[in-house]
């Protein structure tokens, strides 16, 4: 039998080159592969098999004196009588940087208009804005010396007009969002504990206030407790890529999975939950700057679990359609379009167009086309089309 050794050597060379190429690709992509697949496998295994979140809570527990350093900042603006003497259904905090004056103005004119809510919906909702300091003292001094407009003076003037800014003297930055979270829970605990619900939202979130009020009124009538609802993240691993905005080093959080939490863009809790989270913040290390994850750690420490509401969006916008507006709670990523969206979403004929057998069938078909599209992510899940 004749064997072509030259052909064999050629095939072996090709195999060797192919193997080297594959190994090279794997080595180059290993970090992305680890972040994208392996880290999620580890995270889910940790959550469902090992489930050692109790150990995490114990390891993050610190003396009260040390925990107080995350909350004992001086108030720069504090409308302490905002809720006084009123039956408040909802206290709604909007997280906003000092510079976002126009966004705050748009919210006051649309879904956060307290006068509209009281007159049209018949309930009291208090909308306030949570801020840190616009600059460090050194930066503010340098800015003033160059003749710049004092940002803090602008905020004082804005608060004088509207009385809805709550500000402490920590630097307002992404890495201090957990401090802003603690500010919100501590302020409600001391200033507005009688409100039946608490909500926190980003200043680029659209809230369908009529739908939300109806939903919360029903819950209030049923006397719900231990209530925490939003867009739920389960079995989420920490991001270890240093180029990511959400990078968390092992030194800060060495475990492979976060406790369940709701997206920080918008979520709602009942008043009893506010008190429990407040108590948790008095004993936990708040150096983790991912605020919605810290909320999950606090909640897990006091035995609370989030509930998913399919019409609370995560990181994406809801589709623009009145079949969506009929059940919308929140939608993320709205700035320039907030006025038009508010006008369309609250149009009195939306309920009429989507009611009845014909309207229901039509909207189901529309929502299937919009929400079950594989290219539509981070908004409402496909199953929302059938509810």
From TrEMBL:
Location of the protein in the cell: Golgi apparatus membrane
Catalytic activity entry: a neolactoside nLc4Cer(d18:1(4E)) + UDP-N-acetyl-alpha-D-glucosamine = a neolactoside IV(3)-beta-GlcNAc-nLc4Cer(d18:1(4E)) + UDP + H(+); a beta-D-Gal-(1->4)-beta-D-Glc-(1<->1)-Cer(d18:1(4E)) + UDP-N-acetyl-alpha-D-glucosamine = a beta-D-GlcNAc-(1->3)-beta-D-Gal-(1->4)-beta-D-Glc-(1<->1)-Cer(d18:1(4E)) + UDP + H(+)
GO molecular function, one term: lactosylceramide 1,3-N-acetyl-beta-D-glucosaminyltransferase activity
Family: Belongs to the glycosyltransferase 31 family.
Pathway: Protein modification; protein glycosylation
Keywords: Glycoprotein, Glycosyltransferase, Golgi apparatus, Membrane, Signal-anchor, Transferase, Transmembrane, Transmembrane helix
EC number(s) recorded for this UniProt protein: 2.4.1.-
Domain of life: Eukaryota
Gene3D superfamilies per the UniProt record, alphabetical: 3.90.550.50
Pfam families according to UniProt: Galactosyl_T
EC class name: transferase
Membrane topology value: Single-pass type II membrane protein
Assigned GO CC terms: Golgi membrane
Protein name according to UniProt: Hexosyltransferase
Keyword Kinase belongs to the record: no
Primary localisation category: Golgi
GO biological process: protein O-linked glycosylation; sphingolipid biosynthetic process
InterPro entries: Glyco_trans_31 (IPR002659)
């Amino acid at each position: 039998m004749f064997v072509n050794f030259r052909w064999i050597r050629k095939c072996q060379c090709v195999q060797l080159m192919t193997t080297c190429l594959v190994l090279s690709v794997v080595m180059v992509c290993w970090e992305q592969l680890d972040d994208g697949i392996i880290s999620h496998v580890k995270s889910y295994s940790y959550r469902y098999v090992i489930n050692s979140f109790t150990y995490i809570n114990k390891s993050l527990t610190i003396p009260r004196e040390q925990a107080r350093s995350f909350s004992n900042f001086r108030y720069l603006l504090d409308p302490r009588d905002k809720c006084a003497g009123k039956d408040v259904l909802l206290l709604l905090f909007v997280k906003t940087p000092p510079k976002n004056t126009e966004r705050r103005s748009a919210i006051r004119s649309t879904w956060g208009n307290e006068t509209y809510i009281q007159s049209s919906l018949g309930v009291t909702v208090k909308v306030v804005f949570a801020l840190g300091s616009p600059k460090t003292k050194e930066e503010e001094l340098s800015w003033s010396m160059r003749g710049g407009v004092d940002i803090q003076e602008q905020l004082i003037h804005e608060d004088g007009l509207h009385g809805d800014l709550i500000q402490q003297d920590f630097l307002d930055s992404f890495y201090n969002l957990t401090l802003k979270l603690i500010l919100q829970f501590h302020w409600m605990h001391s200033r507005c504990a009688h409100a039946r619900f608490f909500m926190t939202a980003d200043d680029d979130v659209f809230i369908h206030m009529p739908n939300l009020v109806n939903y919360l009124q029903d819950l209030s009538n049923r006397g719900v407790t231990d209530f925490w609802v939003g867009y739920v993240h389960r079995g989420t691993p920490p991001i270890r890529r240093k180029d990511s905005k959400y990078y968390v080093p092992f030194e800060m959080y060495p475990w492979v999975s976060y406790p369940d939490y709701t997206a920080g863009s918008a979520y709602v809790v009942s008043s009893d939950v506010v008190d429990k989270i407040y108590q948790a913040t008095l004993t936990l290390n708040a150096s983790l700057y991912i605020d919605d994850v810290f909320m999950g750690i606090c909640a897990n420490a006091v035995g609370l679990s989030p509930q998913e509401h399919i019409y609370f969006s995560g990181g994406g916008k809801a589709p623009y359609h009145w079949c969506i507006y009929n059940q919308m709670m929140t939608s993320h990523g709205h700035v320039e379009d907030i006025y038009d969206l508010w006008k369309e979403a609250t149009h009195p004929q939306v309920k009429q167009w989507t009611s009845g057998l014909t309207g229901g069938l039509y909207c189901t078909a529309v929502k299937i086309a919009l929400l079950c599209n594989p290219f539509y992510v981070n908004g409402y899940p496909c199953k929302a089309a059938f509810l």
